[in-house]
Every structure is written in structure tokens, then in C-alpha cells.
Amino acid sequence: MDAAAPGAVAAGGRVAACTAAARAEGVRRGQRIRDAQRRCPELAVRERDTGTEGRLFEDVAAAVAELAPKVEVVRPGLCAIEARGPARFYGGEEALRVLVQDTVVEAGHDCGSGVADGLFAAGLAARAGQGGVVVPEGGAAAFLAPYPLSVLDRPELADLLRRLGVTTLGGFAALPSGHVAGRFGADGALAHRLARGEEPRPLAAVPGAADLSVRAAFDPPAARAEQVVFAAKRLAGELHEGLAAGGLTCVRLEAAAGFADGRVLRRLWRHDGRLSATAVAERVRWQLSAWSAGRPAPGTDPEGIETPVPGGDGGDPGEAAWGGIAWLELAPDQLVPDEGRQEALWGRSPLTDRIARAADRIQSLLGHAAITRPVLTGGRGPGEQVVRVPVGDLPPGSVPDGPWPGRVTAPAPAAVPPHARPAEVVDAAGGLVAVSARCTVSAPPAALAIGGTTAAVTGWTGPWPADEHWWDPARARRRARFQVATEDGAAYLLAVEGGHWHVEAAYD
């Protein structure tokens, strides 16, 4: 969606995640899982994977691209196009809205489409009615007025406004702008502009014919996705340097790849702030994954005849670049003045920048997964609360808010083995200690055996039961945890599951 355009079409909805039937039952984006499943018991819940979302949504963006030359991917699940030109070509805004919806549905995805003055209003219009609505030009504020404050995706601001007696976007929009900025700060002022149907960031067109795009050529053509991703990181750094020289930053970026067979594929990506080099590389990775899914496997043409792959090394076909990529280009499509950022004290460069550059050099030598970083996630066990993500990849998502009943309490264990270690907990008579369905311990633990070594138990506490994913038979787990101290001064976190004991972690 172009901020200068009076209209925008937003094609949205959760790709392959929320069907029209689920929406009819009251399932909405941002709901708690238990609330969504209460309204729609047959709803399937899967762990979020941003890479998979990007690949799946590429089909939607490609379908919309058949109708309009420039499709902007706001995020996996929502894309936008300028409405003025296509609406005139297809016979009006309502005709364009219906055509976009029908095209995406024919591609095999549930979809809603809406037309409005700005991207925020167009996104809500795509979820209104039975498949979207057209908001009359100049009517965005009236359309938004009845909506609750929760659609702003700012829970703290919404909670504060509700305590002040403001419950809808219309009530929030009626507040004086100066008072809102003074009371709620810059983010509150931004939300206030959204509630009034105004664009949060007006387009700042920059005159001049300077070409700020950056390009990398591959000779021979790149046959591995990692080659292109590393080049995207380097190009993103060069692009940011060129923009910084002119006091600019980019909030919409076009990534284009030219294949050895002559095809050129382009995609627009949008971000509310500066797109970092990591974010650019991640989006290029999504595009490569999506394009590979729609092409024949390397080494075959569409008729199944074997053909050589330029630069191929006989590796995993899923990692090959489908005929070879000859060049990659990044071009800023929407420029705004750079408001700057706070540097470290005394002019020093931020430490994180130096670490990122060093990590890039090591990854170029040892591979993308050679360096990982721990990322906190939600979970009950200590091994579930941290995942390792390759440096440069986006984390799996925000930390769930819990409250995670049955979670292991502080202090945290000192060591968590990569794989569960089998153990045996026996009572004074030598029988295996068991835990009943009512969480009753058959007998006090007397000895602990790990790897052929047995030690007497001097203290224990538990059990802490955890019945997880009970609604999904394939992922359901029922276990109980114990903390156990032994006579040799060691302490362990143990778990019993299906009658079998194992060591989850060890304490100092």
C-alpha cells in the first residue's frame, strides 16, 4: 500500500490457518488458544513458523500479482496493492475487491479483501462482513469508530484508555491530538492517527534520480540458497550505507532475483521501521523457499528429463536454487527521512554491530548454523524454555505469556543435557517408584540410579504434574517432575512419563 494513494486493497486472513468457518464461529487473530477452541472445537493449532508462513503466503502474493503490478507484503498473512489504477481498469473498487478475493480463493487459500483510504483501515475492511467491504473514500474514520481498542495491538494503551472511560476507536479519535501526544507519548500519537483513519507515516518523496539500488551477480549462477542469503546480507549493508549518506531510510524494499533461464521474480516487503540486514536476508530466504516449492526438482525439466544444474554440488535438492540464480538486486521503493538512532556513549559503535560482523565472517566459513544464540521461549521444563537459533535468523516468536501451571520453580538448573538421560528411582524395598493418575507417589524415593551408578536419596520434593497438549493426541504428554538430592551432594530434576524415569536437568 502506497501512503500517497487514497485507496488500498488489502488481501489478508490467516493463510491455511483460519478458515471461513472458524471466522464465522468467532475466531479472531490475537485470541487466546483456549478462547478460539471454545468457539471452534475442530480448530487445528500448530506451532508458529515464520519461515513456513512466508513460503505459504508467497502463493497468495503471486496470485494477487497477476492482477496488479506491485504487491506489497506487509507481513505473512497480509498484502496490499494500490487501488486507484487497478480499480479503474477492472471496473470499480468493488469489482477489484471481489476479483482479488476470488483469485486468492482459486489459488487454494481462504481470503478476505477490503478497500479503504489507508492500510490499517483496509486490513480491518478485509476482515469485515462475509469476505470484506469497500470503505468509501474519506470514510475511514467513521468506519473505524465502532471498533474496540484491541485492534490497535497495543494492550497496555488499550487497558489504560478503558480505565479512563474510552472503549472504542471513535472515542479515542475524539481526544485532542496535543493532549494524546503529551499523555501517551509518540506511540500513543501514532495509534491516535490510526484511530482517526490517517496514515501513521506520511510519504516523504525525495526528488532526484540517484539510483540507490544494489546488485550482486553470481558467476557461475548460485545453485545454493545459502549463497544468495549471504549476498543479501552484504547487499543490505551496502544499501543502508547509501541511504545513510543521504539521510534517508527505507520502509519498503523490493527484492528481485534473476534466474539462469531468464526469469525475473520480484517482491515488495514493508516494515514499520528500518529493515535490518538480518530482516532483509530472512525475507530473501522466504522468497527462495517459496519459489523452489513451485518449481521442478533440480536436475529435471517440466517433462521429467534430466538436465544439469549450474553450480550444482549434489546436495539436498531442497537447498538448490532451481536452475541457478544469476543476480540478486535490492532496491528501496519507499524512502523517508532517517530520524537517527542513539549511539553508544563517547561515540563508540554498538557492541552488537561488532558481534554481528564477526558472526557473519565465521558463518561464511563454517556455514549458517555454525553459530547459534539462545532465545527464551515459553515452556514448563528447563529444556523447553530456551531454543538455539542460528545468528542472523529471526527468533521463533514472542515469549508466550503463560502462566504455565506446573512450571519448574526457581532456582534454574545449572545443566540441561541435550537428550534425556534414563534413570531409575526405587523405594526402600527396591521397587520402582510410580506416580498414579491422581499424582499420588507409590512410596518415598530411596535410591537413584543413573548410568549404572546408584546413590541414596537424602531429600526429595514433588510431584509437579503437567498434562500438555491434551487436545492433540499426536502431541499429548503427561508427566510428573521431582527434585531429588543424593548422598554424594548432587541434585537433579527428574521426570517420570509413561512409567519411565529420566533426568531433565542437574543442579549445582
UniProtKB/TrEMBL annotation:
Residues 6-130 form the UmuC domain. PROSITE patterns: UMUC (PS50173). It holds the Pfam family IMS. Keywords: DNA damage. SUPFAM superfamilies: DNA/RNA polymerases (SSF56672). This is DNA polymerase Y family protein.
